[in-house]
Amino acid sequence: MTDKERERYVPVPDGDSLEFWKGTEHGMLVVHACRGCGHRQLDSPRRCQACQSGDLYLETVSGDGVIYSFTIVRRAPAKSLEDRVPYVLALITLSSGVRMVSNVVNCDPDSVAIGMPVKVVFERISEEINLPVFVPA
To answer: H or E stretch including 7?
Structure first.
């Protein structure tokens, strides 16, 4: 692990998120889908957040979406992020209906807008983690 990796927050896969991170390793977004009502969600794999069914399965979804909300971070909240400011932190609504928080990269932060189409790409941030981030579609 490099000094930069030690400084930057790196997610630690656990029982609830392990399948998600395994999917990102292969360039896929994996969510939990409910056989009962069709609801899709990133977390809480034990119960459907919509109907409370325990009949969930893993589904690979498209990385296409739109920006639901966002903020431009202009002051680094940690020393390890100083070289990244300004950056966009966004709430993305995927075409599958799942919402997730991520960064919008490879564009001028001031060009980002609510409703902007985006697509997922993956950024290697450690030997084990491929982080999903979004670029303008």
So the answer is: helix 3-7
> What whole-number distance in Å separates Cα of residue 38 and Cα of residue 57?
10
Closest CA to 10 of 115, 134, 131: 131
Q: Which amino acid is at 76?
A: A
Long-range contacts of 131-134 (CB under 8 A, 24+ apart): 131/11, 131/24, 132/24, 132/29, 132/63, 132/100, 132/102, 133/102, 133/103, 133/104, 133/105, 134/63, 134/65, 134/90, 134/92, 134/102, 134/103, 134/104, 134/105
**Whole-structure pTM value:** 0.90
- What is the total count of domains within the chain? 1
The predicted pLDDT at position 8 comes to: 67
Low-confidence ranges of the chain (pLDDT < 50): 1, 5-6
**What is the rounded CA–CA span in Å between residue 104 and residue 15?**
27
The amino acid occupying position 137 is A
Query: What pLDDT shows up at residue 6?
Result: 47
Q: CA distances (Å), 15 to each of 22, 25, 52, 81, in order?
A: 12, 16, 19, 28
Q: Which domain holds residue 83?
A: 3-136
